[in-house]
Amino acid sequence: MSVVEDVPTPQVVIDQDVLDRNITRMAANVREKGLRLRPHAKTHKVLQIADRQLAAGAVGLTVATIGEAEVFADHGVDDLFIAYPLWLTEAQAERLRRLSTKARISIGVDSVEGARTVGAALNGAAGKIAVLVEIDSGHHRSGAHPGSVVEVAQAAHEAGLRVEGVFTFPGHSYAPGMPQQVVEQEQAALAEATELLTAAGFDVTRRSGGSTPTATLTGSSVVTEVRPGVYVFGDAQQLELERCAWDDIALTVAATVVSRTDVSFNDIGRGSPRRLILDSGSKVLGTDRPAWATGHGRLIDHPEARITALSEHHATVVWPEESPLPALGERLRVVPNHVCITMNLVDDVAVVSAGQLVDRWAVAARGRNS
Amino acid sequence: MSVVEDVPTPQVVIDQDVLDRNITRMAANVREKGLRLRPHAKTHKVLQIADRQLAAGAVGLTVATIGEAEVFADHGVDDLFIAYPLWLTEAQAERLRRLSTKARISIGVDSVEGARTVGAALNGAAGKIAVLVEIDSGHHRSGAHPGSVVEVAQAAHEAGLRVEGVFTFPGHSYAPGMPQQVVEQEQAALAEATELLTAAGFDVTRRSGGSTPTATLTGSSVVTEVRPGVYVFGDAQQLELERCAWDDIALTVAATVVSRTDVSFNDIGRGSPRRLILDSGSKVLGTDRPAWATGHGRLIDHPEARITALSEHHATVVWPEESPLPALGERLRVVPNHVCITMNLVDDVAVVSAGQLVDRWAVAARGRNS
Hints:
homodimer; alpha/beta; Lyase, Ornithine Decarboxylase, Chain A, domain 1; TIM Barrel; nine-stranded mixed β-sheet; eight-stranded parallel β-sheet; 11 helices
């Protein structure tokens, strides 16, 4: 990708051809199974990518915050799911009421108190907002126990909200060997919650699950929609989980070799023989690193190299013994561990197609944490 | 801090009274020892904080990138040290030339090739840029071996750059029990480099070291200036290194309890008895977590609680058995592990004094990675 030679580094570069392929493939996979696709836009936060997802058949978008919903609603996206157990202040309720005049809005709740508070804060507008009860399917983050789903749904209903269904985030699928097992837990939890809700008289039309590691493994026996995010770009976590291939990587960070050490001077046992320093530090790659990851990201074209440490503007790369150490000034392309973090660190990205710079896209919803 | 009840969360809040005390104390400490203070502005990236540091006697600022230098130079800061081994493209050289017309600029180099490239790229303007050779004092990131300093300085001199001295970043001080030992390594490395340079005929007027863990331990026998950054705010890393006290914490993230679990339903061994979820996830706290840290940040007013996991919009907090679990909707204040990362995630911050909201400051140099 010759354009990488010309940009100031570190620079996030999106390969539009690979991006489009990823978007098309996931849409086809989900459609073939009779599921609906509601991609999580927190991954990219980019209007142009949302447009591509919707054009490929997504029924709407998932977002994490009211702020993200506002950005996409203002762009004209008319169906947005804030997949989060919102706790509304008066000011936030007002924003949600305004949102509900622009788009079909659904939100999460995971507690009786949460449902009551949301309903009360929304006041007369509660009936315009659909609610999905969040279920914990084993990740143990937010989400009600499936056995508590009826009381939460009942509270939401009594607070004037429209209960549409249930959702879960099977985040414990982010570990080697876990995705298949976690898909089963996800389906079991959603099935249990659905059965209880149906018995209590609720019409459970949405059963929402899935994330990038599990979305393509999910069947349609229980789940009705999936919410993968990372699949648009791929990243080093998905590579090492074997949930994407090197050819699926659409986002890299162009970086420059600014320092290198070809011999060790190991005075306190922490030196490493052949290392180099890239200018892509944690302020562009992020420091997300699960225990099973082999490093802080991977290098395209150098799969044996490992990023052993990150500081804000330095990535320390240990180089395999058998390969020549890149020269100072050489440009390398880093695959971040977690693309959602990287996109949230930059204001815009370079877009390439067939190796040429074709566009720059703003990260329109960057930093919209509330 | 009653203002924390009113802001949308997550929200970075700076206590101006504590900030001013931290700035004054470090300035006095450094001055008493006859050292010069050149605070690292990558920590805060805020013009109003830079003004306070300079008013308290800082001789200039340290920054990490040309982009950060541009923001502060445009604000009128007239002495800026880019403490980084820059590798210049033609476009970056042009920016550095422009910078040198607005402020006294010094930069780092750590290799013969780097020095030659920088000198050649700067062309006629090389003489306006001062150079400090970066030395590795044991952190093993960037920096030349002290024994190689003369050849790097010679290359810089021959390339037309003005060699002013040496600098080091003793980053391995960020570990319990390390700061005192690392101060000694820092001084030994700078002393060795200075001796060699002096013998080779260089006039070494700047010997720059120090960071928040070591700055107050550094004496003036070798070092002439220190570059602490984090001291303005303090953070959970400094707390746990015992390099600041709870009363020194000037930056917290106001967060809302959005989910809670008072009993366990431990089906796969990962559940925890009493946990709550805050809306301050990794997109505001960052995921920097050294192996010795007790969690992903600390809670003011609840020192026994631990943040055991972070995802983008969720902080999982395990609550001590003996304390009542906060209610849903309650506001808590989180001390991030690493404030430099937190500041780079937000566009502006709320400023309080005596518990009242008094200002909002823009994070003017946020995202200036190149």
